[in-house]
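thought: fold this chain, then report.
action: predict
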Amino acid sequence: MMQTGNYITSEHLRKIKFLLPSVRKKLNNLFSILFIGFALFFGLNDSVKAQSRDSLELENIFNSADEISTVRSLLIQQNGELIEARGFNGRSLNRPFNIKSASKSVIGLLTGIAIEKGFIPSIEEPINTYFPEYFEENPDSLKQGITIKNLLTMKTGLRSTSSRNYGAWVISDNWIEYALDQDFVTDIDDQMVYSTGTSHLLSVIITKASGMSTKAFAKKYLFDPMNITVGGWDKDPQGYYMGGNNVALKPNDMLKIGQLMLDNGVYKGEQLISKEWIRDSFGTYTYSNYNPYGYGYQWWNQEIANYKTFFAWGNGGQYIFMIPELNAVVVITSSTLNTSPRRSYKDSIFPLIGEKIIPFLRKRLEQDS
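observation:
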């Protein structure tokens, strides 16, 4: 049937009348959004405006982290509140990461617990107490006098089993004997000699002193109370759990350990380790020969952007950063593939902390005060 122009016109008018309420509603919504936007922009809601700025800064931080090719996760926490946590390059935050030598800081904590529980008499206890068979066959009055504290602070004086010596140590038949067999390269309690074998001796001592494996000891006194599950933990040829490398933890569990340190050894109201041990762990007893960092009881420290920062550090870029003045913990995990001997990943990670994350945390703290 043929339609006249009048019919078409009247039909269009009918449709327009039908659509008007819908268009009017959408326009009203648009004007409302614009009004709120102008109100926020001109300061009628300062708190929301501040949150918006924080979100932009936070996005910039995580974009910068994602641009570091090796970084696989970043978690930022302040005042006990998780601000943001993300995995990169397809990595899930629910998957445990090998934290490499950041494992040493865990061993430092476990040593403190073993002393406080009475399994180890004190940090001044000589190591010959725990290796009598070795010293019967290899008497050495100097080595026998090395103390628990010397192990904790990497001041045994013995040649390192790390870096270029690491391979020979881990393929040896007996990691304990290999570490103790090393010659002195400096006096005991003199310079720092960073050595994974030294931390491994602490793990063996924990096992011998407590009568349980280091993993079982950690589970009972540290991990279970904090609801931490270990994803993996290497053993030596004699079956002792490795004391300085290759523990796998989820990033969120690393965050818990950092918060425990910030909270002076308290987790959910329970004192898992004394505040005195935390204080002493964060002391500076020596400095590395290869970087400007101070060293405590298996924990590093360094001033970053004028803030004293303590950290657990594993090869490839595994970090638990604690910044007490900002009441903040930052966790970073990274790929361990193709890591260079000069540890060039630090050249990107430390500026991320100092130039982006710390200023963000400082401003956030100032807004809350």
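thought: worth noting. Confidence is low (pLDDT under 50) at residues 1-40.
final: tokens above.
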